[in-house]
Amino acid sequence: QVQLVESGGGLVQPGGSLRLSCAASGIIFSMYTMGWYRQAPGKQRELVAIISSGGRTNSADSVKDRFTISRDNAKNTVYLQMNSLKPDDTAVYYCNAVRHTTSYEFDYWGQGTQVTVSS
Question: In degrees rounded to 5, what are phi and psi of residue 23?
Fold first, then answer.
């Protein structure tokens, strides 16, 4: 059974920092591209950052230079370090694991963790 369990969300003041973690089980973690997505109330889910199995990263323009995605394959965990947080970063943050083969796409999601940026 595949599980992606996010942690590290919470309430933080503008300008503050949070570190999200996503622990994966039931998959060969090192073979998956891992991503963080977020969904604010009334808005569509959007990509925040992704990291490939080889460690290549990409992130949304709105979080570049503030958020950093990383992974620890030995711990089956992906992280999102969020600095200089803004109220617009308030959302539920979801962890995603995806792997493509020639005949199938494996796509898994976590339950999400709430991040609220407010004074």
Answer: -95, 125
| Separation in Å, CA 119 to CA 18, 75, 81, 98, 114 | 15, 34, 20, 36, 16
Token pair 């995806």 is found at: 98
- Kind and range of the H or E run holding 89: none
Kindly report, residue by residue over 25-57, the tens digit of the pLDDT.
Answer: 999 999 999 999 999 999 999 999 999 999 999
Q: What is the pLDDT of residue 62?
A: 96
For residues 25 and 14, give the distance between their C-alpha atoms in angstroms, rounded to a whole number. Answer: 33
Cα 55 to Cα 32: distance, rounded to the nearest angstrom: 10
Tell me the backbone φ, ψ of residue 55, rounded to 5 degrees: 95, 0
